[in-house]
Amino acid sequence: QVQVVESGGGSVQAGGSLRLSCAASGIIFKLPVMGWYRQAPGKQRELVATISSGGSTAYTDSVKGRFTISRDNAKNTVYLQMNNLKPEDTADYYCKVTYTLLEYWGQGTQVTVSS
What we know:
seven-stranded mixed beta sheet, mainly beta, 115 residues, globular, four-stranded antiparallel beta sheet
């Protein structure tokens, strides 16, 4: 049974930084693809960034140059370093782990950026 747990959300002022963490347990056979998504109030969930088992990364355009996704394979943990945060980054952030063709989601962590 794969479990996904996020941490690190909070409230910051515009221009500030936060670091989100996501730990996946129950991973046995291969390294999963891991990613961060976010959902703002009244909006659909959107992809923020992903990282493959080999470390290849992809970002949505609005966060390029400000957010960095990384992973620690030994811990099956993925991080999202968010710098120069903007009010429009305010959302619930979710971690998704894709493992053996199945998707597992965390419970989400809230990020609030005030102007």
